[in-house]
Amino acid sequence: MLNVQSERVDYRELLTPPPCYKVEFIVGTTYSLDLETLTAICAIIGLNIDADSELRESPLHLLEAIRKASGKLLIFCQGGRIAVPGKPNKLLPLLENCVVEVNLPNKCSFHPKTWFIKYTSKGLPDKFRIIIMSRNFTFDRSWDVALCLESAELGEETIEQSKDNGEALSSFITWLMKDSLPHNEQMRKKNRKLSLLSAEISNAEWKYLGKEFEGFRFIPYGIGYSSQDSLNEKFQNMFVISPFISKSIIEGYASKRLAHSDCTLITRKSELSKLTPELLEVFNTYTIKDDVVDGEERISDSGDIKTQDIHAKVYLRTRDSKSELYIGSANASYKAFYGGNVECLVLLWGKKSNLNVEKLKLDLFGSDEKSNPFERVEPRQYTILDEDADMKLLEDELRDFCMIKKEARITGKEPYTTTVTLEPFHADAKVFLRPLMKTREPKQSISERMVFPGFRLGELSEWYVVYAKSGKSEISRVIKINTSNIPSDRDSAIFSEIVKDKNEFLSYIAFLLSDNYLSTFLESVKSGKGDYRFLNMNFDTPILYERLLKAALYDPESLRDVRDVIALANDNIVPQDFLKLYEQFEKVVKP
After folding, report:
1. In terms of Cα–Cα distance, which of 569, 577, 516 is closest to 541?
2. CATH fold of the domain at 389-489
3. Can you tell me whether residue 528 is helix, strand or coil?
4. Is the dihedral of CA 289, 295, 301, 303 positive or negative?
5. CA distances from 223 to 2, 165, 244, 347 (A)
6. CA distances in angstroms from 280 to 106, 107, 131, listed in the order given
7. First CA to last CA across the chain, in angstroms?
8. How large is the C-alpha radius of gyration of the chain?
9. Domain 11-206 is in which class?
10. Which of 119, 280, 416, 566 could share a disulfide with 127, CB 3.0–4.6 Å?
11. CA–CA distance, 422 with 393 (Å, rounded to integer)
12. Cβ 540 vs Cβ 577: under 8 Å
C-alpha cells in the first residue's frame, strides 16, 4: 500500500488520460507552486511526455506544450508561495491564466493538494479522476503520498461512497470559484468549466479499489462545509504520518486510545521538541534516517542542494474489526483541523483483516533494520530549535502584502508602460516590487502608485516579484496582479520570439502533426544540429504533406491546431504556398 520501494508514482502516470480519451479540464490545488514545475505539467498534459524529457529544453516544443495545455489547466495556490524561477523564461506570461492565488484571513493557509480531472472522447461517456496528494506543485524531493480515484463505467464494480460525498466534492469546487475572478475571456471560460465540473463530478460513481477499501468519503476543511471525521474517536491502534504537528492534537489522540493500544508516529526531527517524554512513550515515534535525508541530493542549476524528508500525511486507525485510513494534505496540527486552514482529506474504510497497522508497518519499515528508512527516537525532552525571527517576520509581511487589493494597467504603445496601484500598506520590513519578465528592471519600494516603463510587447505580463527584507534576511516570491489593457496580440509576440522564421514555422507544424513528439524532436536535432531544420524550405516536403494527409484522415482536430498556430504567427513567416495547401485540406475536412 505504501511501500516506498515498489509503489512510487509520478505526475505523468497520474495525469495520463485513459486509452482513447483526452484531457478536457484539470483543476489542481497546492500550497506552494513552482512555475518550472508548472511548465513540466504542461509538457505532460500537452505532449504526454515525462516531466524531465529532453523536449522541455527546447523552447519551440515547450511553447507547443503550453499552447495545448494552458486552456485546460487551472491551478489554485496559496498567495505568496510561488517560487521565483531559477531561469528566465519568455513563455511564462502564457501561464498567467493557469494560476489563481488564494489569500485567507487571519494568517490561515490554503493548503490542499487535490486534482480534479475531466477526460472526454468522441462517442464515449466522459470520465473523471480525483487525485488526493500530500505533494505540492514543486520539485521538492520529500516523501509524499497519493491516492487516485477513477470514475466507473456502466457495469464496472464500484466503491461505496458516503451519502454526502457528491455534495462535499461539489462544495469544494464551488468554493474555489470565489477566487477564480473572471477578469478576462480566458478566465471566464475556465470559470464556466469549473462550474460545470462541480455539477458533473458530484454525480460520478468511482471504481473499486480492491479488497482493502470498501468505501470512501471526501472531506474538505475550512470552506464552511460541515466536515465529518472520526479522528478524535476512541481507537485500539493508530498510525500517524505527519511532518508537522501540534502538541494538543497528539495529546488528543493519546487520550482516545483504548487498553493495550499500539500508537505510532512518523514526523520530522524538527518537531520532536513539541512532544513531551510522556507522549513519546505513548506514541512510538520515528524520524527518517539522516543518510536517507541526505542520500539523494540533487544539485539544482542555482547550486542549491536539495535533500528529502517525510512530507506525507497519513492517519490509520483501527477499532474492533474496522479500519479507517485518511490521506491528504492535513498535518496533525491545530491550524489544519481547527484553525481555519483549507485542507482536503479522503477517508477510506475497510476490514481490519485487510487494512491494518501491521501491514502498514511492514510496507514502511521493511522486514529488517537495514531496510528500514526510519529510526525510533528516544522518549526524552528535545531541544527547541531557534526560530529565525527575521524570516518569520518576512513571511508574515509577504502574506499581508498578498491580502491587499492590487491592480495594474497597460498604457501607451511599444515601449509600453505598466502602472500598478495598491491599497496603502504599512510594513515593518522593507518591501519591493519588480516585473518578473524585466529581469534588469530595478526593484521599486512599494507605494500606492508604481510606474514601470519600457516594455516590449512580449514582456508584458501579470507576473511580478515581491521582495521583503529585514536585517540580513531577504525572501522573494512571485505574485500575480490582475492587469487590464494587455494588447490582444501579446501572445502572438511571444510566439514570434520563439518561432522566428519560415523554417522554424514549418518545423513547428511538422512537430505539431507528428505521432511521436520525442522521436520527431530527436530527428530534428540529429538532422539540423539542434536548430530544428530537418525540413528543407520546400513546403511540400513529403514529411509535412504526409502528416497533413494523415491528420485529415484520422485526426481532423489537429488541423484546427494548425489554424490556431497560423493565427498566432506573423504573416511574414507563414509560407504562402503552405497556407494554400493547408486551406485545401481545411476545405475537404471542414474541421
Report:
1. 577
2. Immunoglobulin-like (2.60.40)
3. helix
4. positive
5. 29, 15, 22, 18
6. 32, 30, 33
7. 46
8. 26
9. alpha beta
10. 119
11. 21
12. yes
Q: Characterize the bridge pairing of strands 305-306 and 298-299.
A: antiparallel
Domain layout of the chain by residue ranges:
11-206, 235-376, 389-489, 499-589
3-state secondary structure of 5: coil
Nearest to 568 by CA among 557, 577, 560: 560
Own/partner contacts of 423-427, CB < 8 Å, gap of 24 or more, are 423/448, 424/448, 425/400, 425/401, 427/397, 427/400, 427/401, 427/468
CA distance 9 to 89: 28
Instruction: Show the 3-state SS of 170-225.
Output: HHHHHHHHCCCCCCCHHHHHHHHHHHHHHHHHCCCCEECCCCCCCEEEEEEECCCC
Sheet holding 343-351, edge to edge: 160-161, 215-221, 343-351, 322-328, 314-319, 235-241, 257-266, 284-288, 374-376
Q: Please give the single-letter amino acid code of residue 515.
A: D
Q: Which set of grid coordinates corresponds to residue 427?
A: 510594513
Which grid coordinates belong to 363? 510496507
Q: Are 469 and 429 in contact (CB under 8 A)?
A: yes
How far apart are alpha carbons 164 and 217 in whole angstroms? 8
Enter the DSSP assignment of 590: -
User: Do 235-376 and 389-489 show the same overall fold?
Assistant: no
> How far, in Å, CA of 329 to CA of 300, rounded?
26
Residue 30 CB neighbours (<10 A): 27
Cβ neighbours around 226 below 10 Å, total: 8
Joined grid coordinates for residue 309: 524528508
Neighbour-count burial for 114-132, b at 16+ CB within 10 Å, e otherwise: bbbbbbeeeeeeebbbbbb
Instruction: Please list the rounded mean pLDDT of every run of 10 residues in the chain (591 residues).
Output: 63 87 96 93 84 68 92 96 90 95 94 97 95 91 92 94 95 91 85 95 96 96 89 96 97 96 96 96 94 55 59 96 97 96 97 95 87 93 82 92 96 96 93 93 94 96 95 93 95 94 88 69 49 43 78 84 91 89 82 49
Instruction: State residue 535's pLDDT score.
Output: 42
Q: Which residues contact 471 (CB under 8 A, 6 or more apart)?
A: 390
Nearest to 243 by CA among 181, 305, 313, 191: 313
Q: What is the DSSP letter of 384?
A: P
Whether the Cβ atoms of residue 150 and residue 138 lie closer than 8 Å to each other: no
Rounded Cα distance, 433 and 443, in Å: 5
The third-level CATH classification (topology) of the domain covering 235-376 is: Endonuclease; Chain A (3.30.870)
